[in-house]
Amino acid sequence: MKELKEYIDSLFDKEFILTGFKTAIVVGSLLFLINHGAAFLRGEMNLERWASALLSYLMPYLVSVYGQYAYRRKLSRNQYRHYRG
Fold it and tell me: pTM for this structure?
């Protein structure tokens, strides 16, 4: 449970936000085009599609921040082991 709280806190960590945001824009836009591009161009976007489109941007952000968070934890654990000898 502690790890989940730390991860949630990391979603708002200034060190992670910019990379997460850039990833969300690039990957989210690709996902949006793949999944909703045709419907968008035809003017067929409804509330359900917009909600799904939002997830197309949210998920890459969450994954990017998780990767950064996990890497930081790994480095911290390795430093702890190194100091313990």
Answer: 0.86
The residue written with tokens 């430093």 in the block is 79
Tokens 């991860």 belong to residue: 7
The pair of structure tokens assigned to 43 is: 């003017």
What gap in Å lies between CA 34 and CA 38, rounded to an integer? 8
Q: To which residue do tokens 């790890």 refer?
A: 3
Closest CA to 19 of 71, 74, 54: 71
What element of type H or E holds 26? helix 14-41
C-alpha angle 26/66/52, rounded to 5°? Answer: 50
pLDDT in tens, 16-55: 999 999 999 999 999 999 999 999 999 999 999 999 999 9
